[in-house]
Amino acid sequence: MSIIGLTIDYGPYAFMTHFDEEFVCNLSDHSGRYSYKNQPAMCRWNLTKLAEAWEIIFPHHKAKFDEIIAVTYDAVYQLHYDKFMAAKLGFPVSSAPTSAQAEKGDDNDASSAGNDKKIEEGYKASLEAVIGAFKDTGADWTTTWRILSKMPLDTATDEDIVVVASTIANEHCCSPVDRQTVLRRRMSHLRPNMSKEQIQQLMHLASTNPSALQHLFTGSVEPEALKQFLAEQLQMWEDLGRVHLQIGQLKKYAENPNLKKEEDQKVWSAALTKYKEYLAAAGVSDAPRMRLQLSVNPAFVLYPWILQSAIEKAETGSYSLVRNMVDRSMAPFDDDPRDEVMWSMAPPEDAANFCVSCSS
Q1: CB 31 within 8 A of CB 232
Q2: What is the mean pLDDT of the chain?
Q3: Confidence class of residue 88 from pLDDT cuts 50, 70 and 90?
Q4: 323-328: long-range contacts (C-beta < 8 A, 24 or more apart)?
């Protein structure tokens, strides 16, 4: 992460196939420290370490640095996150009215504020419903958003919603086989350095006799750093138990391969029905919604299998696919017939076997 807040690596989270909050693209991250869901916290951690480095130059500003990170970071992050996700859902979320505007009591300002509140409420309720469906079904992060961007909802019937939900469930959600592959890979990454019993004994020692605990480790290790290490080790054991449970829950699909598709269809039908209701309550119609969504939900991203195909052809001396891929990447929000001819935006059967690193 650069000093201006931009990631300077490949950034594969942008090209995540099936939505998974615990997805890790760092092959050396065995605890999930840099998982998708932990990215905001790790960004805050990066800023904290930057502030610690600056303390050497500005020793009298430590309290100010701490205050900026503690008070400002979460608010700024949430503001940008809401703006981005609202656009993906088609809600034109604007800035909140200033206190001066509120004090004036102007009728137009009051009306605008009331409308903004409806839109904000609709956005938050829609986000909860749609992201919940992504979590429950492991839907493709790119193609599913694109489908929502093109779905007319103003006059959509229950049957229309079921048709779209079935398309998402049948073609764009994680299969039981892929889910098992992902979970087994995650399980192989979770490698605690000690048993749960050892961790619990050391954690007890840390709370009752910190100095004795320090003597067990070589070098000068801060007590808080030791506590954090032990907490991470214990978390790995808890994550292992949860992954084992999730793998066990997949067994029911072995007897009925279509069961997950049926469950996913119901999940998306319910989510899309709520989404339609929230849009209507907020007064957001199809035309402006779809226009906004199509400008932020890409039709094309550099999926790992597309990149791999280009690499394999380039290794044989053929660079045509690379050139077409680069050209296509210049207009990712435009629909292009090449997506059906040169590469598939739908995940291949072995999509779960593609594993890229943040340094790829």
Answers
A1: yes
A2: 83
A3: very high
A4: 328/300
CB of 250 closer than 8 Å to CB of 180: yes
Greatest mean pLDDT among 58-67, 121-130, 213-222, 324-333 lies in 121-130
Task: For residue 274, give both structure tokens.
Answer: 């709520």
Backbone angles phi, psi at 173, to 5 degrees: -105, 155
| DSSP 8-state code for residue 98 | P
Q: Which two tokens stand for residue 298?
A: 């890409």
Residue the block writes with tokens 């210049």: 330
pLDDT tens-digit series, residues 99-139:
333 344 455 555 566 678 889 999 999 999 999 999 999 99
User: In whole angstroms, how far apart are CA 153 and each of 18, 142, 148, 337?
Assistant: 24, 20, 9, 25
User: Token pair for residue 152?
Assistant: 């007319």
- pTM equals 0.80
Token pair for 70 = 């503690």
Among 2-6, 199-203, 277-281, 297-301, the least confident range: 2-6
H-type alpha helices, the chain: 39-54, 62-67, 74-89, 99-104, 107-137, 143-149, 158-171, 176-189, 196-208, 210-215, 223-249, 252-255, 259-282, 286-294, 304-315, 320-329, 338-341
